[in-house]
């Protein structure tokens, strides 16, 4: 049977990952799967497709298989140029074993990790079907989903899987300062305004309460939750670390506000979503998180000033984001 291979990024030319040509070769793939993924050794390879490629850094490949029962199974192979991401694989494996499997009673899961192919610096997981939460933000009657997403974050925070790194407010502010300085270089006409935003952001961060830290996602936003009926899947835990739980909720809200601004023309268009998410999280935890969540939402929006400059289609919104951040930081004479 012919195996369809698609590499629209021409990733095989990546000198930092010379093994990509083997990872896209049907015969090599079948051999490696037989060797390292015994569960799928009798499955027939149908399709190989490079889904994402960051030259010299990362590559994401989908492998479509047909099993003995005529069912299609898709595996996602995650490759990292600097070496196999054993930590992310082990974390996902631990989560799967600690209540995040496909049959968890609360309907909150992670995709099933299935193995590692060391020669390709790749770990694999089963692809789950469904829609990312971003696609559902503007649909009617989805406030219940906001509450469920708060439960997803809370469940992760309760797992007690020891993180291998940490992220503090100092780290958050350091990253923010680095990013905004890059924007100043790109838009020198906004230098004074951006410097004021940095001063106010640093002040906000330094005066934000630090709650008890635990394992957090750290990149929690609507694209990281897949909705499959009543089951929610949490994905992309590469940045899992020890940190303030408010970071995840604040980051999620900051992304919703930026999305509302860019897609709906009003940063408050999804305010009901944000309120439901926050209230449910506070219900599950404590009122003390409210201030921190608000702070991290603002700092996420400030970070989005830089993010907006990285995509051609988002650059028209950079100045509008600038205005919004000034308002949220109570900077006088905001444009």
Concise description?
Helices cover 42% and strands 19% of the residues.
Comma- or semicolon-separated keywords:
single chain, 335 residues, alpha+beta, four-stranded mixed β-sheet, 10 helices, globular
General description of the model:
It is a single chain. This protein has 335 residues and is an alpha+beta fold. It has ten helices and 13 strands. It is globular and about 65 Å long.
Instruction: Name the assembly state.
Output: single chain
The termini sit apart by 63 Å
Average pLDDT rating = 95
Rg measurement, Å: 21 Å
How many DSSP helices?
10
Largest sheet: 6 strands, mixed
Low-confidence stretches: none
Structural class: alpha+beta
Number of strands: 13
Q: Helical percent range? A: 40-55%
Shape designation: globular
Q: Name the beta content range.
A: 15-25%
Spatial ordering of strands, largest sheet: 1-2-3-4-7-6
N-to-C SSE string, H for helix and E for strand = EHHEEEHEEEEHEHHEEEEHHHH
Reconstruct the topology from this structure.
Elements: E1 4-6, H1 20-23, H2 26-36, E2 44-54, E3 58-66, E4 72-80, H3 86-97, E5 108-109, E6 113-117, E7 122-126, E8 131-132, H4 143-157, E9 166-167, H5 169-186, H6 191-206, E10 214-216, E11 225-228, E12 231-234, E13 241-243, H7 246-264, H8 271-284, H9 289-309, H10 318-328
Parallel strand pairs: 1-2, 5-12, 9-13
Antiparallel strand pairs: 2-3, 3-4, 4-7, 6-7, 8-11, 10-13, 11-12
